[in-house]
Amino acid sequence: MSKKIEKKDLKAFGLVFGLIFLVICLWPAIFHSLQIRNWALGVSGLFLIPAFFSPAVLATPYKIWMIIGKALGWINTRIILGLIFFGVMMPLGFVMRIFGYNPLAIGYDAGLKTYFVMLPKDKAISLKKQF
Questions:
Q1: What is the DSSP letter of 5?
Q2: 3-class secondary-structure state, position 114
Q3: Which residue from 65, 76, 94, 105 puts its CA 20 to 30 A from 127's CA?
Q4: Phi, psi angle pair for 24, to nearest 5°
């Protein structure tokens, strides 16, 4: 992490984590009439108190969380993109090949001098007003 960590980032980190653990603490009491989770209340305090009074204390947990977040993001990106490619794009390509659909008219023809396609005048488009 080469970027300098700002105080507002540390405060936001502490508040988010503190509130998440506060919700975990109070959830059983509010929705199930059970006792609160004392461990979650303690963890919530460990994040909320420094967030309000001394955000600099949260610098190390913030750095660790950012490293974990980057690693998980790297892994998830590969998984999601892999699923989209192998689950959507590849089967779609197979179906298009089976039915002979070639939207770009890609193919090799040794007899052609050029692959440039001239459009008729009525189908010509203006490059000045593209949008």
A1: P
A2: coil
A3: 105
A4: -60, -35
